[in-house]
Amino acid sequence: MFTKKAILTFLKAQVAAFLGGIADYGLMIVLTEAFKLHFAFSILVSGTVGAIINFSINRFWVFKNQSGYSIPINSQLLKFGLVVLGSISLKSFGTLFLQNAFQIDYRIGRVITDLFVSYGFNYPLIKYWVFRINEKQSVIESN
User: Fold this and answer.
1) Domain residue ranges in the chain
2) pLDDT tens-digit series, residues 31-76
3) d(CA 63, CA 69)
4) Boundaries of each GtrA/DPMS transmembrane domain copy (predicted)?
């Protein structure tokens, strides 16, 4: 059963992902086309910038605790960093695979890869691992 709060959180997370994704994708195009970097390296750089934007929006808007209690940022940054490493790796290899195996332009391959990585990897890990409030924290909040 989906609650109103769960749907709102999902939609807000999609806004965060979209804004980070636009920065990521746009920078990838600029680095690849204007600076002639290989797209796999461009994805590494642009993915890092997009991740910083995404993390900031998620931490301070999407998964912000309404009572003001905040999970320590160091723990979230470490977990988020691991998710980003996995995400960037999947995006780079997925885009490269689609280009080499099917001759799909890297820009289109990246969009296809992003859809799978965003919904099947990033969102579940960000929601249920990076910004998850454990039961001990929930008790503190309810008091």
Assistant:
1) 4-142
2) 999 999 999 999 999 999 999 999 999 998 998 864 445 667 888 9
3) 11
4) 18-131
Half-sphere exposure of 18 (CA within 13 A, CB side): 7
Cβ(99)–Cβ(106) below 8 Å? yes
> Which has the closest alpha carbon to 51: 70, 78, 71, 23?
23
Structure tokens belonging to residue 49 = 């910038």
Global pTM? 0.81
- Contacts (Cβ under 8 Å, ≥6 apart) of 102: none
Q: What is the DSSP letter of 31?
A: I
